[in-house]
Amino acid sequence: MKLNKEIREPEQLNPLALAYMGDGVLDTYVRYRLISSGQVRPNKLHKEATQYVSAKSQAYILRALLDEGIFSEEELAIVKRGRNARSGTVPKNTDRATYNLSTAYEALIGYLYLTGREKRMDELVLKSFEMIERKE
User: Fold this and answer.
1) pTM here?
2) Nearest 5°: CA angle at 117, between 101 and 124?
3) Number of helices (H) and strands (E), helices first, in the chain?
């Protein structure tokens, strides 16, 4: 839901703003996936969700997707901007390189959401979930 408000020129947004949006979108996808699979205990939901949304998992996903070469030039440009973005915070539980890749992944999801490319976003998120679930 976008509340009938359009974000003009999402490709011009700061990559950290794209990542912020992507983080929220991914969180919704993960929650839906877990609840639809029958998991409903709150403490278990939170624990399971971290497997999908941790910086380490997101960096793993992005590396694998990059290796597959499935991104368009436009998507690669967003990934690079997200990876090179510098936030004022230092990650607590991960190294800077992992954090940067995680930010790049979230920026791409945020960008796809804000540009209305739901089908592509669904495709990438589903592929991401499959990667995480195979890894377990």
Assistant:
1) 0.91
2) 45
3) 6, 0
DSSP of 8-54, one letter per residue?
A: S-GGGS-HHHHHHHHHHHHHHHHHHHHHHTT---HHHHHHHHHHHHS
d(CA 41, CA 27): 17
Whether 128 and 61 have beta carbons less than 8 Å apart is answered as yes
CATH code assigned to 12-135: 1.10.1520.10
Q: Looking at the annotation, which residues are catalytic?
A: 23
Tokens of 8: 């003009």
- Are 104 and 82 spatial neighbours (Cβ–Cβ below 8 Å)? yes
Asked if residues 105 and 121 have their Cβ atoms less than 8 Å apart, the reply is no
Q: Extract the tokens encoding 130.
A: 């499959």
pLDDT tens across 36-78, in order? Answer: 888 778 778 888 888 888 999 999 999 999 999 999 999 999 9
Domain ranges of the chain: 12-135
